[in-house]
Amino acid sequence: MADAPDRLETGLPPEQEPSAAADGSERPQRIVVLRDFCLRAHGADCERCALACPHGAVSFAEAGAPVIDGDACTRCGICLGVCDAFSSTRVTMADLHARIRRIALRGERAVLTCKENVFPGLEPAANVVVLPCLACLSPEFWTLVLAEGIDVTIAADLSYCTDCVRAGEMGELLYAHAVETAEEWSGRSVGFSDVIPEKENLLRDLADPSGVDRRSAFSNLVGEVGDIASGKRRLRNSEVLQEFYERRERARALARLNLGNGTEFNDFVPEGLTKRTMQPKRQMLLEALERDPGIAARVPLVLSETDCALCTDTLSCAAVCPTGARRPDPADGTLAYDARYCIGCGLCVGACPEGAVELVETTAETLLPAEDETSL
User: What is the CA radius of gyration of the chain?
Assistant: First the structure.
């Protein structure tokens, strides 16, 4: 099991830090920075989060770590979509993916929309997921959902994006790019609708059956009452049952990936421990590839590569690697490399004294297991 990522300061003054209410109600959502996934915390000169933020709410401390201006931040979640180092305190990407999976397990279509499209009085149906902005989802997230064969649709009026105070035009630009990229990678499509499904209310429909005759409305009500009496409705809508199925399937998928997240004993490093950290977006991509290996050839990647003729195993590259893709082999201390963890940050290139490391353009086929591994 991977260690919990370290959190950096959010930039909120102490008086604005959320705390549990006296009645035990849910804390307000905020955005936090996770140290393990931040490249700047490891010495890289990355500014994607600041460039993407539509309100200039992200700046960098003297040590290089991102700091969030709590007054400027609108919690749009754009930073979540562009970088793994950002997370919501309320719902993680894993939580969101699990919810979409549970909707699919019920045999329903998953409908995604944003807060800007949900007006007062509108009660979205149970299969509708309301996001602060659709741009909070990365191409890898969409690719995984499509690779799993989930019927997913976006329900939104895009004309609202221009005047959206939460994310503005940047949100529309980034979310459209993420969806188009995922469709290209997966070879599948995301549906689109301008209508958000509403919560069913059979008693209301019986009283005012607009669009449906009274006999049909009454028949639906009788059928629903019968399901309730027999327990079928409870079974069909049981979140507990769906969560169980989702956890079991996810556990199987992760077991098949055989990821080595976390720390391991290693006599060839001063601290005696080495650590590998799987970036969430890379893990989603690996899960998508596990579902459909045919995607791999369409997914471009930049990874590090070592010229073995020049490498003298100084392990300078391993010392700066932020994910543990490069590390001393616990067996003999020579350089070990796992491309699945490599995110192409380039820190290893500058650290190698022999110039034995370079970044190369490749595809996700490099991340697929070797044939002898798949036959085990």
Answer: 24
From CA 150, how far away is CA 200, in angstroms rounded?
Answer: 22
Domain boundary among 73, 88, 103: 88
User: Residue type for 135, please?
Assistant: A
pTM (2 decimals)? 0.80
Q: What are phi and psi of 250, to 5 degrees?
A: -65, -40
Contacts of 13 (CB under 8 A, 6+ apart): 70
Q: Is residue 140 part of a domain?
A: no
pLDDT digits (tens, 9 = 90+) for 47-94: 999 999 999 999 998 777 899 999 999 999 999 999 999 998 888 899
**How many structural domains compose the chain?**
2
Whether the CB-CB separation of 206 and 199 falls below 8 Å is answered with no
The reply to whether 185 falls in a domain is: no
Q: Which of 339, 336, 343 is nearest to 264 (CA)?
A: 336
Supply 84's token pair.
Answer: 């793994």
Name, in order, each residue with C-beta under 8 angstroms of 338's C-beta and a sequence gap of 6 or more.
Answer: 260, 276, 324, 325
pLDDT in tens, 97-129: 999 999 998 889 999 999 999 999 899 999 999
